[in-house]
Structures are given as C-alpha cells and as structure tokens.
Amino acid sequence: MPASLTTRLLVTLLLADAGFVVLHLLENVGPFWRDAFRMDEDNSLAEFFQYAKTIGSAVCLGLLARHWRSMLLWVACGLAVFLFLDDSLRIHELFGGGVIGEMVTGDESLEGYHLGQIWYAAAVGVIVVAVFILAWQGGSAPARRVTAGFLVFVAALGFAAVVIDSIPTTLIDAPWFRPAIGLVEEVGEHLAMTGMVWWCVKSWLTLGQGQSGSTER
Which of 20, 66, 146, 199 is 20 to 30 A off residue 58, Cα-Cα? Predict the structure, then answer.
C-alpha cells in the first residue's frame, strides 16, 4: 500500500510541476494571472507550491527523528527548515547576492550579485557538510539511508539554484537564451523539491511505522 501511495504522490507532484511549466509558458494569459503562475515570480502559486514541498519534507523528517530518536534526522529536518526560511525570506538574495556581493566586488553590479550568492552557497555548504559529518558518526543505518537520499535531492537543488543560475546570460547572443536558462533553473528546482518531499514521505510511510525507540548507536 505505501508503495502504491507514494507512486501516486510522485505522479501527482510531477503533473503539478508540468502544469506550472505550461502556465509559465502561456502568453495569452492576463498580466495578473501571468504573475501569479510564473515560476520565477516572488509570491507566485508556483513558489508557494515549493514552500509546501519543503515544509512537507521537514515534517516527515521530524516525525522520523522523533520516532527513532535520531539526532542525524533532526539535523536533516533542521536543514529542510533552513531551506524554507532561506527561500521564503530571500536570505540568499538579500544577504548573499546583496551584502556579500557588494563586499566582494565593492559595488552593486550583477556580477557581484551572482558572486555573492556563490560565496554564500559555498559558506552554507561547508557548514552543512561539517554538521552532517559530526551527526553521521552516531547515525543508525536506517537514519543514514534516509538522510543520504534527502541530501541527494538537496545537492540537486543546489546545482539548479547556484550552478545553472550562474551561467552567464551573454553566453549565447540570442533573445531566447536568458528566459530559457531561467526556465531550466526553475524546472530543476521544482524537480529536486518534488524528489525531496517524495523521498521523505516515502521514508516515513515505509520506515516510520516500525518499532519505536532509539536506533542511534
């Protein structure tokens, strides 16, 4: 039953992602609705859909952490909460692209904005890796398996949000290139978040109903 349920969840999420891509591309929609459905627009329905995925991932990881009394999974839950706060409060843009970018280049240029976000992502990545290395040592095999899958999708999210976003829009001198790169980035982020919440829900449904108690060593 859990396998069938999680498969339906995955298909539903992917169809929703595909729907947002179609709505993003439609040109015959009025300005108000266009902004509401655009994948690259702040406070759009697509962005709130991403928030829901992040919160869902955090809830499932928190339930597993409480069920297994696993510090490793509490750390993973904390990372999911951080991803939600970073995206909803635009920390990577305001602090990374703004503050750090201006510190790196000494101005408010677009180059500084992108460099600042890269430096911010690198700093966060170092901290996250260090914390997970420490927590990993005492993690049980099931907790490690769940965490490893979660981190795979976090890495995919980071690749889309940082690496693809950093591709120079002047790389190809064509009017379609800049919106195409933006769309690829957004689709990548949506697919990464879909995989993340699917994995977390699947882990809870298949592993979270087992024997309670600590599985940490």
Answer: 20
